Amino acid sequence: ETVLTQSPGTLSLSPGERATLSCRVSQSVSSSYLAWYQQKPGQAPRLLIYGASRRATGIPDRFSGSGSGTDFTLTISRLEPEDFAVYFCQQYGSSPRLTFGGGTKVEIK
Amino acid sequence: QVQLQESGPGLVKPSETLSLTCTVFGGSISTYYWSWIRQPPGKGLEWIGYIYYSGSTNYNPSLKSRVTMSIDASKNQFSLKLSSVTAADTAIYYCARDGGSSVYPYVDYWGQGTLVTVSS
Question: Collapsing DSSP states into helix, strand and coil, what is residue B78?
Answer without folding.
Answer: strand
